[in-house]
Amino acid sequence: MSAAEAFRVDRMGVAQLTKMAFNGVNLRPLWHEMMEKVTDDAKGSGIGMDLSIIAQLLGDQATGLAIQRDVLDYQRLYRSPCATPTPKLRVLALAAEMDIGGNTPIEFLLEGSDVELTTLYVVPGKPLPDPLPAHDVAIVVAPDDDKTQATLDDIERLTAEWPRKVLNPAMRIRALDRDRLYRLLRSVSGLEIPMTARLSRPDLAALSEMDLPRWLDDGGFPLIVRPIGSHAGRGLAKLENVSDIAGYLAQRPEAEFFISRFVDYASSDGLFRKYRLVCVDGVPYACHMAISDEWKIWYLNADMTLSEGKRAEEAHFMATFDGEFAARHAVALSEAINRIGLDYFQIDCAETRNGDLLVFEADNTAIVHNMDPPAVFPYKAPQMQKVFDAFVAMLYDHAGKPQACAA
After folding, report:
1. DSSP string of 190-218?
2. Predicted local distance difference test score (pLDDT) of residue 407
3. Which residues contact 184 (CB under 8 A, 6 or more apart)?
4. In the prediction, which pLDDT does 3 show?
5. Which residue, 30, 51, 81, sits at the end of a domain?
């Protein structure tokens, strides 16, 4: 392994560039500026990785991934910006070659802290840099995805005898796949999670009412369908009956899909409420609450910025989380967190009409940020800081270092 490959290269990183895009900054001038400076070697690889992120933020994922692939051929260690020139804790993140929504974006969680983050991209078939950069604790940030199984295999093998504590072990991340998560959580008291089955395109096309129990034994139509590997609602749809399948497949090119029964989780007022929880070292925290008159809901399509009433309800959810939501579901949350067994992850959930915790998915890579405008969401910054502080405290604790020494 060459000295150049083992050297850490600085980059702006996902958090800084995403914040710029979120705040409406035109990234094209920065793209052109960086293109003038980038070089095809380890020295220019930090700029190359930032160009990869910018391309994806501008909507050109193919170019972004191509740049990343080329850059990782000669450099796999990158240092993210740190708030202090003298970090008190050093973290090594083990990442996969993925799009910007793939790996756990822990840069957002560490902004303003005294923690230095170095990311190592684990590429199957390539040895680790030698020597590894000095670090106090490591964390696996690679996702559970069909495209990352070889990477998770390598990470699992390499970390079996790692010199430091490794958080979010790869074998636990694998359990987050929707069908595996169902098997893991289905017997938790006070928790409902619909059975999920993985179907090939021909199997979905041939699905009939009579054939459905072969795949799902907990109910019938309507069904929820989504392409395997999709996120943020891409390709998510409700199939009211068998006749809807052909029309759905005519619009989707994917080869495999997840199906599960639809659960009507509308509240008594007819609105749907979906929650994101962040679990840090075994403790759940409120991350956000989205309210909509549509079942297919995520935060960006809930129009929270347009409704003072919705924001007031989300503020109440955050302020009273420990004594209300978390208390109502204490048993289910505790058991689910224990079974999942990850040090840091998120749960997207709701409440059923009979009061159970309805789990949609668990994920180690969802973005947890503090980018929302404080003038509109004044209650969010304190809540997000609580999550960030808990994450940093977890790192210190597992590194065996007292946080009292932090600035």
Report:
1. TEE---EEEEEHHHHHT--TTTGGGT-SS
2. 42
3. 175, 339, 340
4. 43
5. 81
Residue 47: inside a domain, yes or no?
yes
Give the whole-angstrom CA distance, residue 244 versus residue 255.
18
Helix extents (H) in 58-206: 61-71, 107-110, 149-158, 170-173, 178-185, 201-205
Using the predicted structure, report yes or no on whether residue 1 has a pLDDT greater than 80. Answer: no
Q: Is 165 a member of any domain?
A: no
| Alpha helices in 23-146, H assignment, sequence order | 28-37, 45-57, 61-71, 107-110
CA distance 357 to 186: 12
Indicate if the pLDDT at residue 6 is higher than 70.
Answer: no
Q: Whole domain around residue 41: which residue ranges?
A: 1-81
Among 191-205, 215-229, 261-275, 387-401, where is mean pLDDT lowest? 215-229
In a domain, 267, yes or no: no
- 305 and 388 belong to one structural domain: yes
Choosing from 81, 98, 120, the residue where a domain stops is: 81
pLDDT score at 404: 59
Alpha-carbon gap, residue 334 to 351, rounded angstroms: 16
Q: Are 6 and 129 in contact (CB under 8 A)?
A: yes
Check whether residue 225 and residue 325 sit in a common domain.
no
CA neighbor of 230 nearest in space, from 253, 207, 214: 253
Domain count, the chain: 3
Specify the CATH number for the domain of residue 359.
Answer: 3.30.470.20
- Beta pairing, strands 344-351 & 272-280: antiparallel
The dihedral built from the CA positions of residue 301, 340, 283 and 146, taken in this order, carries a sign that is negative
